[in-house]
Design goal:
12 strands, Aspartate Aminotransferase, domain 2, 13 helices, seven-stranded mixed beta sheet, globular, 430 residues, single chain
């Protein structure tokens, strides 16, 4: 008789999981307050406080207030809120003066925006492999990738665990290059007791619908450097400058303005972040104990120096050899049938996208085939230099969403039971 639900057996779990996003009347009230105020746009008022320096100011914009509060929560001096986390990366790179002819080191295992933000400023992304047990940028491989064209390193705090910022910052300082933290997964995460996002020169967060804080979309740049904050503030609203005439533009910028409605929601979401992250961490630790003896499945290592971990993702490493060659996709399908939503994450590396293989970026071959750069990049060749990324994408990683970890220990027991059941009856999947 079949045991697995995918084969007709009884599933481990049939009850719903915690839903995302979490919301209540506070979000409704926040939106209602903005609606009734008639002040729906940050730049219509709150002049003079755009750089987060006067929380007591009257008529404070919700966008400015959120920038201040998020920065304060993340141990940063300045928070510049914008329309999304891709735009914040672009603005951060431009604020650092990165452009044609420059290279930026990006982890090979990441969402495409980490690399396309580099391309959007006409610079060249150079990929470096990740650590096998954290999927974070491998510092041991950085120096070999640095050239006289390297202007920045972009560590991505994958899944919510901080990268090894001790090593990355040391390497960057010795080579005189900037550090741009992609903390799209790292809301509230820490490295040695300090929040990520303001450990380097500048950091970027996303508030897209799946993230640990969300307003559907949104993003923010954090920095402790006033000059960078002023440049970001100008770039996100078409190149204007505070205190200058409205129709006077000083640099080529974007329209990446966050709305007052988004900021109002995010102020409420921020109130929940610490408690939700604490619950995720507790449940993640409990699940790790429950599955410690399961062969062929291992969670990513939690570096003890990463003192807080947002667990945007809980990632398991799947070893096909331990399951008689049953493919990961089949194992994941069986897990889903048992009532545990899971997925395989990035199905191929960023550099394997047709855009990179064909160099189909900007017109006239930029940023690679232009006189500013004068070099070639064979993105297909990264398949040979990034074995961890190749393995993670094609056969190893299994992702669990952060919302599953907003429940209780019984939920973790269900996940562990489902993993154990599929493992024990894997022959049914052959």
């Amino acid at each position: 008789m079949a045991e697995l639900a995918i084969s007709g057996g009884r599933p481990v779990r049939t009850t719903p999981w915690p839903e995302w996003p979490v919301h209540d009347e506070r979000e409704v009230e926040a939106i209602t307050e903005v609606t009734r105020s008639g002040k729906w746009w940050r730049f219509a008022y709150a002049s003079g406080v755009e750089l987060n320096e006067d929380l007591s100011a009257k008529d404070l914009s919700k966008v400015v207030e959120f920038g201040m509060e998020f920065a304060r929560h993340h141990d940063a001096r300045y928070g510049i809120a914008m329309t999304n986390g891709t735009g914040t990366l672009e603005v951060a790179l431009r604020a650092l003066g990165i452009g044609p002819g420059d290279e930026v080191i990006v982890p090979a295992y990441t969402y495409v925006a980490s690399a396309t933000a580099v391309l959007q400023v006409n610079a060249v992304p150079i990929f470096v492999d990740v650590e096998g047990d954290t999927y974070n940028l491998d510092p041991a491989l950085l120096e070999a990738a640095i050239t006289d064209r390297t202007r920045a390193i972009m560590p991505v705090h994958f899944g919510g665990q901080s990268c090894d910022m001790d090593a990355i910052l040391d390497i960057a300082r010795r080579h005189g290059i900037a550090v741009v933290e992609d903390a799209a997964h790292g809301h509230g995460s820490e490295w040695r007791g300090r929040k990520v996002g303001a450990l380097g020169d500048i950091g970027s967060f996303s508030f897209q619908a799946s993230k640990n804080m969300t307003a559907g979309e949104g993003g923010i740049v954090l920095t402790n450097n006033r000059d960078l904050a002023e440049k970001c503030d100008s770039l996100l609203w078409a190149g204007r400058q505070k205190g200058r005439p409205w129709y006077e533009f000083h640099q080529l910028g974007w329209n990446y303005r966050m709305t007052e409605f988004q900021a109002a929601i995010l102020l409420v979401q921020l109130e929940r972040l610490a408690e939700q992250n604490a619950r995720r961490m507790d449940n993640a630790r409990y699940l790790a104990k429950l599955i410690a003896d399961l062969p062929g499945l291992a969670p990513l290592r939690w570096d003890e120096r990463a003192t807080k971990h947002s667990f945007y993702l809980y990632v398991l490493r799947f070893d096909p050899a331990a399951f008689g060659g049953v493919p990961r996709s089949r194992f994941v399908d069986a897990l889903i049938a048992e009532g545990v939503p899971a997925f395989t994450g990035y199905t191929f590396p960023v550099y394997a996208n047709p855009m990179f293989l064909d160099h189909d970026f900007h017109g006239k071959g930029c940023p690679i085939n232009c006189h500013h750069y004068g070099h070639t990049v064979d993105y297909a060749a990264y398949a040979h230099t990034c074995p961890v990324t190749e393995r993670a994408c094609y056969e190893e990683s299994i992702w669990l969403e952060h919302r599953l970890f907003l429940g209780d220990h019984r939920d973790m027991e269900n996940i562990a039971e489902a993993l154990a059941k599929v493992s024990a009856h894997v022959a049914e999947l052959a």
